[in-house]
Amino acid sequence: MPYVRVEMLEGRSEEQKAKLAQVITNAMVEHASAKPDSVFVVFEDVKKSNWATGGTLVSQKK
Fold first, then answer.
1. What is the pLDDT of residues 35-52, one digit of tens each?
2. Which residues, other chains included, contact 24 with Cβ-Cβ below 8 Å and sequence gap of 6+?
3. 36 catalytic residue (yes or no)
4. What is the pLDDT of residue 43?
5. What would the 3-class secondary structure string for 49-60 be?
6. CA atoms in the 13 A half-sphere facing the CB of 62
7. pTM for this structure?
8. Which residue in 1, 7, 25, 36 is a FRET match for 62, CA 20 to 30 A apart?
9. Alpha-carbon torsion, ordered 56, 17, 41, 39, to 10 deg
10. Domains of the chain (ranges plus CATH)?
């Protein structure tokens, strides 16, 4: 039961997430011998005000 968690900044469409879920599932099947129905992909959308890089919140970057 592979569980893949994808954390990324909010803003991707449902269509983009669906395509990404399919690509991730296919990769797990091809490279990890997983069965498609056993692969769980969970998306965590993070607000820009809750994500920092280089010591600066993404929401404060220009």
1. 999 999 999 999 999 999
2. 4, 6, 39, 41
3. no
4. 98
5. HHCEECCEEHHH
6. 0
7. 0.88
8. 7
9. -150
10. 3-60 (3.30.429.10)
CA-to-CA dists, residue 10 to 6, 22, 32, 45, angstroms? 11, 19, 28, 5
**What is the token pair recorded at 62?**
């220009």
In one-letter notation, the amino acid at residue 54 is G
Give the C-alpha separation, 40 to 24, whole Å.
10
Catalytic residue among 1, 2, 4, 33: 2
Alpha helices for 1-62 (secondary structure H): 14-32
Q: Count CB neighbours of 28 within 10 A.
A: 19
Instruction: Please list the pLDDT of the chain residue by residue as tens digits (62 residues).
Output: 999 999 999 999 999 999 999 999 999 999 999 999 999 999 999 999 999 999 999 999 98
